[in-house]
Amino acid sequence: MNYTPEQKEKWDKALSYIQGAVDTFSYTMWFKPLKLYAISGQTMYILGANSFALQHLKTRYGSTLEQAMDKVFDIQYNLEYYGPEQISLIEEKLSAAQSTLNRKYTFDNFVVGDGNKFAYVAAAAVADAPSEAYNPLFIYGGVGLGKTHLLNAVGNYVLSRDPSKNVLLMTSEAMTNQLIEGISKKNTAELRARLRKADYLMVDDIQFLGKTKVSQEEFFNTFNDLRENHKQIIISSDRPPRELPEIEERLRSRFEWGLIVDVQKPDYETRVAILRQKAMDEGLYVPDDVMEYIAQNVNSNIRALEGSLASLQARSKLMGAPIDMDMTRSALSSLVTTREDRKIDCPLIINIVADKYGMEPADLTGKRRSQEIALARQVAMYICREMTDLSTTAIGKAFGRDHTTVLHGCEKIESGMEDYGFKKRVEEIMKAVRDD
């Protein structure tokens, strides 16, 4: 069914209205054979008995039908008429209208962890009902951390509840390319209309919008139009608005009108949960020790995790053998390096952090408590917890502190990661530790 029960009820009511407004013969001949086939966005697809009947209806009674629909429906629909032989054409149009969404990305298969919980809750909230407080919803974070999954999940959820909603998801790069093509053909009205008819407009990777002035101008006007009409806007980026100097100030300020949330790298427990979810989706049996091995050694992003599992799955099929630890080490040898090979330990991390902050390792393990040294010490503690399997007690011993000091330091760093510049600096230090 390509319409909701409520929409069908209103369709029947409109026909009843027409039945009382025209003579019995005209109603029986021209209106009674009509069937509501679908409602998508602002278009109503009507199925008639044959092409001749539809042509006569549009010519003589088109305005009557439009007035009846306007009377009972909350919005004004564009009415399109089709014969039975044109059902495939309708389906093509409906498919094209929703083709921007990836159906496999839903809220149900989005693995929630500490690093993405707030973004998940915010996305679910606007999917359930557009909110002025969350408009726009701006989601930022590194590559492969689930931003695109959340955008698709919103769209799929909205359409599952109301297929008539006009949901549009596109990348800023695609928007720019389509706009440039429209300018070359002297026809930008089509893209403009498509953007501004959206009930939910979701733009992925907004950072690439800065490539041209004309695309920023178009999106600026579209943003204003949609927000004034209480339509939901959702934007994703690799950075928060204030870190997008290539985007005009007037746009960046509008991005900050709503809610800004970030997605962070998944922790160990979330990485294991992601692998389990992926294995379940693929109908793949993966031993727990294999999942734990991958989660321990692949911690950059979700795509890398899923890519590792896909590599294992391919090898298992080719070799006709079940997945085990030997196969895993062999298959992922080019993707991961074990902690033992890297010899990542507290002394290594202390040395690298001290170097990055222009200090001596003894400063981090000694008793000095200046603000600058305390911060570097907490960063080192946080990285030790993230990149080793040591307990907080063992980490504390390496710094001459107890485990409560380590816990406090890690909490301070996690809180500070809300600042994109600080988060990026910590991640750069962690990369230096991995590459040492």
Question: What does this molecule look like?
Answer:
- The model has no long low-confidence stretch (mean pLDDT 86).
- β6 (200-204), α9 (213-228) and β7 (232-237) form a beta-alpha-beta unit.
- α1 (5-19) crosses α3 and α18 crosses α20 (403-416).
- The strands form two sheets. This protein has a five-stranded parallel β-sheet with strand order 5-6-7-4-8, with helices on both faces. A three-stranded mixed β-sheet has the order 1-2-3, with helices on both faces.
- The chain is an alpha/beta fold and 436 residues long.
- The protein is built from 21 helices and eight strands.
- The longest helix has 22 residues, at 51-72.
Keywords:
alpha/beta, five-stranded parallel β-sheet, three-stranded mixed β-sheet, 21 helices, 9% strand
Give the helix proportion (percent range): 55-70%
Unreliable spans:
none
The largest sheet, given as strand count, sense and whether it forms a barrel, is:
5 strands, parallel
The helix-strand sequence is HHEEHEHHEHEHHEHEHEHHHHHHHHHHH
From the spread of the alpha carbons, the general shape counts as elongated
E-strand count: 8
User: Helical region count?
Assistant: 21
For the largest sheet, list the strands in their spatial order: 5-6-7-4-8
Strand content range: 5-15%
**How far apart, in Å, are the first and last alpha carbons?**
59 Å
Structural class: alpha/beta
Mean pLDDT: 86
Rg estimate, integer Å: 28 Å
